[in-house]
Design brief:
CATH architecture of the largest domain in chain A: 2-Layer Sandwich
Number of domains of chain A: 3
Number of helices of chain A: 18
Largest interface: A-B, 52 and 52 residues
CATH superfamily of the largest domain in chain A: Aldehyde oxidase/xanthine dehydrogenase, molybdopterin binding domain
Largest sheet of chain A: 7 strands, mixed
Shape of chain A: globular
Oligomer: homodimer
Chain lengths: 758, 758
């Protein structure tokens, strides 16, 4: 049954979107303050070296230099701290990756700041680094950290009896896959502006996904109470996980604290690519067992992820890879292992998908290889194994609603003309081979049970009925704030333009958690509804008081309160004014953390239900077997997102995710030599442009959840998880050979064709 | 029984106070923004005139002029609007007082802005103004407004049967009193800085007592939703009611809206004195009846207040005068009338005391005249008539706790050595006469029942246990934010330095009402306690979870949770971190509006209880009968304020109020000629300096209320109400002649001595 919504499900241009496309939008780097200094970091030229001498005295003496700080000038903890306390803000002893910084300067202008960096004398003793993650695990290999092994962690997700599962299998497919680094390449690089407010508060404007977490990190580095730090997030020009970690905001705060003046730091593109975390390159060994009918009986996955020297979110990413090892299918016996390996390579961490694109690629290639072996249609074998409501997908969890995957697959089949593809030429030219690939994935909404994961929000209705929404949740371009405006407008019967969503500000809003993990709509949306409900009740009370109406029948819509078929029609603005007159509360806060209803696991133990979203993509590609060039002709992307809040934003998220997946599959490749990235510009690191994007057919399956805001789930990460696998499967289908690695560059396609022919 | 507090009742320096005394504190005028324009207003040279021509074209053409606006350029309502919609922001037709403005300009600098004002051509036709409030009410006098009478309103507070009361009286005292204008003379004049935020919000920094009300007024003038206006209140250098009304913030917003650039407007002292509301000059006729024993039987008061041409809060002030007509005594039969009269004189409105100083002066002079007539001691006659718990003081209200006045009088008697004053020479020199005066007053906390009067507040505990308090309540120097920090610290067991109180910001905080009416501590304090209580419960829940302790026994104090005599001692910072880990809410909002418990009135009708605070002052003065010079030797000021929150701030409020009262009584005099103030500088309008201040002995009576935060009441206005009366009574006592007018200037003392001798 469809509910009738007034604002939810309606196409709405992104709030402030016009400013973005006309260039009027202001970002952190645009902020100008009187007497502002330019801040810069001095990075190590090495990936692995010992610091023998660090002398900043000459730099400090330069005219126009306000401060030069090294590790010893940090008042609090010299660490990014949040995930793991291993990454120093400024290195004093040993360089462990090429993004390490040793000093920061603040100067009157760019030129003086650069001159100050040049005037710092650093003597390094280069050390032999650890650059091969496989070698890193060998006995006798140099340790990245003297005090610990190069194997940081080894996670195992396991259920059933995997050996029994393989014993029950009629066929077993075994392959090893490898994936590469991916760079976020968000259009706006990292930046921060810090200044001291009149009451001594350190205010930091930063392009961040996690303002409240940054606040803690800054407070600890400065050794001051958290409330004496205020982080504000202006508009963000893309993030994708690169701005989940703190970047230069702590350094800007340190310089402001030292100089008592405003400081701006902007990372150049070179610095940005060099320093921030990447998508983990992974090596993934898969063993998949199935019956002769194609039913999966067992999966054993072992993934190795090169996380660089500092762990940050890297361990969590590998844990996620392990958790998703069985894919969105019902697998009765599974063992899924993930190793987090330390090296002196670029650091890896959060990136849209958070480990799932890698494991999906491997798993979905396995499914196609299984289908090949069994002479089954790749789409049919997926339909056969689709996970269903209440089935296990993690050691202690079952999926809460499980009909979405089947529905997505069926719709993708239909929209792509999957069954009719045999009518289309597989070889339109002698050198051109056409292929089709299907892939699926799923994604949990939010983190997991027993994890700190919550959002708070506040709603305030003014006397004219217009509303301010205060949330700590960043909108980094994904449209979260437009969605918030819709949710609150729907709940209070307003037009969305009368709801103003404040950009995150840690002093203004409570912690809403980071804008990650496809959690924002559900977590902040529910917190907003709880806050708005208080105000809604006030409005209803006044209508009842004024009219004696049955509150159950009152409808709030389009700025009015009315009752169907009756003469009652009151302006919400007037109700708001009356609420103020009558001393009724028009401000409220809301708080949400996810409920995980209990579930009985197959082994009889107690587990829980988890909300997940699903998707299925079909890719149609042309491969030039002479040049190895892959052209994607079209992508059909179907997602189960629950109730759609804003179809326009949703399409943007899916098209963006597909494009990012296409780049990951075919084009993007970071060249790392002895730990040093060679292509640190967008001229040398190629991401898709408009001309690279194929026709993308987007559709949705709307199966509303009951615990989520108006039944919405998520769409931030899923598209990126699936597209690379669909393309890889399509290329394999076109050339009739397996594709076991990403990226699928022309060279690698030629290698695949040749290798398999030999 | 004394409760044991840890933070409440402890002397605390004002938060940020050190910055004030060292000159580091920043106020609105200190705000500098890139590309900021200087805004200025063109005021009328007349107090009453018709505008024949207004030509701004030449001013607009000047280089460096960004905007010149007149009434017709205002997008929304051309009115200050809030109290009454009668005062235009810019006048287009008729000038009604000398503070009216006809145009505003924004220019690149001060010089150009001044040149632009000079380039505006205005042709006025001067009109005969209405400058005598008594004449104003005569038939045939010109009307200030064509469309209405010069009598704006006539309020009557009445109970019992006043004619019967006078019939029961053995003596009746009848006199007429007059009081003068008072100028607030706050050290920081009015100012505002406006700019447009990235999302189009009009942000206004303003020195204001009522940010949320200003927000509404600005939105209406600009014709935009309220939430598109954000008013922020930086530190305020005094207000006293002058900043309760909007002043230049709407004009700054208009200029920013027109130019899309930041605009700063600062009123010069001359402009400040010329434009903002004053304390009403009043003429008060009193008839007081009593028995031969001194028991009051009836009071009839009639007050006339000259409010100028625009009503704003003027009617409310006169209504208050009417409400307080019976004074803090039990009067069985009362009739108290107040007339609000329109003239072309300076406008009058809110000023610390809000009508009560005038009526107290008259009432307390009557009490002394009554005591004289009955040969009673002035203090004894007051003790005899003190209002008591449950006794009527307004048509429908009784005082909630009434023992405070007697206690204040007894303490003031003791501290002043009242009974022993006869031992001190009344004539230390032939030309010097010494006198003693006692006076009392009371003051309601907040407005009244059935009036829009509420506060909201929010409290947010960070992961390290430090706290942010968000409130829309202005601290204009009275120490409200220090009190808030103490209340929240006490409630959450923190040190006050771990509580950060945000300066008002309409986007950040809900409406807390204006900082007026001695309401802030009680209203915002209670809202804060409600918000803090949610967090306190979370902390207690965790202690119980961790230790199994009985929650009733847990004490939160000094950053720790502990149980007397047990080993339990947990850091609140750790509990806060655990709350975040465990997804428990650490943000909450609170809302408070006053409960007015029912009371039965003497006539059997239903009324309500109202919280009031009391005070009694004794003044000792020396009068030079040759020069008329009055020297105040000492003031004893005793106040019933409920539980004292911050003794240091409380003493500051009382000393400040006494000083302001002394200025009002003896020195401050605005010379108004044909509606034009002649002394618009602090060189010509004299306020007391440190050398004018006598010894002030401050003491309190702490009778805690049960509905208020930790039992606190108020102290903002009461001292100012009482001191002038105590001084007037002391002067009358010294010279042995009545004093029926304020100010008691040397000239007027000589007149009094002479007049009474004749």
């Amino acid at each position: 049954m469809m509910k009738e919504f007034n604002v939810i499900g309606k196409k709405l241009a992104a709030v402030g979107g016009q400013d973005v496309v006309t260039g009027k939008a202001k970002y952190s780097p645009d902020l100008e303050l009187p007497k502002m200094l330019v801040g810069k970091l001095l990075y190590s030229p090495h990936a692995c070296a010992r610091i023998i001498e660090l002398d900043v005295s000459k730099a400090r003496e330069l005219d126009g230099v306000a401060a030069v700080l090294t590790a010893e000038d940090i008042p609090g903890e010299n660490s990014y701290l949040y995930w793991y306390p291993d990454q120093p803000l400024l290195v004093s002893d040993q360089i462990r990756y090429n993004g390490d910084a040793v000093a920061i300067v603040a100067a009157e202008n760019e030129e003086i700041a650069t001159a100050a960096l040049d005037a710092i004398r650093v003597v390094y003793e280069p050390l032999e680094g650890v650059f091969d993650p496989e070698q890193a695990l060998n006995q006798g290999t140099r340790r990245v950290w003297d005090e610990k092994e190069n194997l940081h962690s080894h996670y195992i997700s396991e259920w059933g009896d995997v050996e029994l599962g393989f014993a029950q299998a009629d066929v077993i497919i075994e392959n090893t896959y490898s994936t590469h680094y991916q760079e976020h390449a968000m259009l706006e690089t990292e930046s921060a502006v810090a200044y001291i407010d009149h009451d001594g508060t350190i205010v930091v404007y930063a392009s961040t996904q996690a303002p409240h977490r940054d606040q803690i990190q800054i407070a600890r580095a400065l050794n001051i109470p958290e409330v004496m730090v205020r982080e504000i997030t202006p508009r963000i020009g893309g993030a994708f996980g690169a701005k989940d970690e703190a970047n230069v905001q702590i350094h800007a705060a340190l310089l402001t604290y030292a100089t008592q003046r405003p400081v701006k730091i902007i990372r150049s593109r070179e610095e940005s690519i060099r320093t921030h975390v990447k998508r983990h390159p992974a090596k993934i060994k898969y063993r998949t067992g199935a019956t002769i009918e194609g039913k999966l009986t067992a999966v054993h996955m072992v993934a190795y992820g090169d996380t660089g020297p500092y762990v940050n979110a890297g361990e969590e990413v590998m844990m996620t890879m392990s958790a998703y090892g069985a894919g969105p299918y019902y697998v009765p016996h599974a063992r899924s292992e993930a190793y987090t390996v330390l090296t002196n390579n670029p650091i890896c961490g959060a990136f849209r998908g958070f480990g799932v694109p890698q494991v999906t690629f491997a798993f979905e290639r396995q499914m196609d290889e299984l289908a090949n072996r069994l002479r089954m249609d790749p789409l049919d074998i997926r339909l056969l194994n689709c996970i269903k409501t209440g089935q296990q997908f993690q050691p202690k969890a079952v999926v809460r609603m499980g009909d979405g995957l089947r529905a997505c697959l069926e719709k993708a089949s239909q929209l792509s003309g999957w069954k009719e593809r045999i009518k289309i030429s597989r070889e339109p030219e002698p050198n051109l081979k056409r292929g089709w690939g299907v892939a699926t994935s799923f994604h949990k909404v939010g983190f997991d049970k027993n994890v700190s994961d919550h959002s708070s929000a506040a709603v305030n209705m003014a006397q004219d009925g217009s509303v301010v929404v205060r949330t700590g949740a960043s909108d980094m371009g994904q449209g979260a704030h437009t969605v918030f405006a819709q949710i609150v407008a729907e709940h209070l019967g307003l037009k969305p333009e009368h709801v103003k969503v404040i950009r995150p500000d840690t002093t203004m809003a409570g912690d809403a958690g980071a804008s990650v993990a496809s959690r924002v709509t559900v977590f902040s949306g529910n917190a907003l509804i709880k806050a708005a409900e208080t105000i809604r009740q006030t409005l209803l009370d006044i209508v009842v008081e004024e009219t004696g109406a049955d509150p159950e029948l009152i409808i709030l819509r389009n700025g009015y309160a009315y009752i169907e078929g009756e003469q009652i029609n009151l302006r919400i603005a007037d109700l708001a004014a009356k609420a103020y007159e009558r001393n009724l509360p028009m401000q409220a806060s809301g708080f949400y953390s996810m409920d995980f209803p209990e579930a009985e696991m197959p082994d009889g133990s107690s587990g829980y239900q988890h909300i997940v979203c699903y998707g299925a993509h079909v890719a149609q590609v042309l491969v030039d077997i002479e040049t190895g060039q892959v052209t994607v002709e079209k992508i059909i992307a179907v997602h189960d997102v629950g109730q759609v809040i804003n179809p326009k934003g949703l399409r943007g998220q899916i098209e963006g995710g597909v494009s990012m997946g296409l780049g990951y599959a075919l084009m993007e490749e970071l060249h790392v030599d002895q730990g040093i990235i060679q292509n640190t510009s967008l001229e040398s690191y190629l991401i898709p442009t408009a001309l690279d994007i194929p026709q993308i057919i987007v559709d949705v399956v709307e199966l509303p959840e009951d615990e989520t805001p108006y039944g919405a789930k998520s769409v931030g990460e899923p598209p990126t998880n699936i597209t690379p696998s669909a393309i890889a499967n399509a290329v394999a289908d076109a050339i009739g050979k397996p594709i076991n690695y990403l990226p699928i560059s022309p060279e690698s396609v030629l290698v695949a064709i040749k290798a398999a022919s030999e």
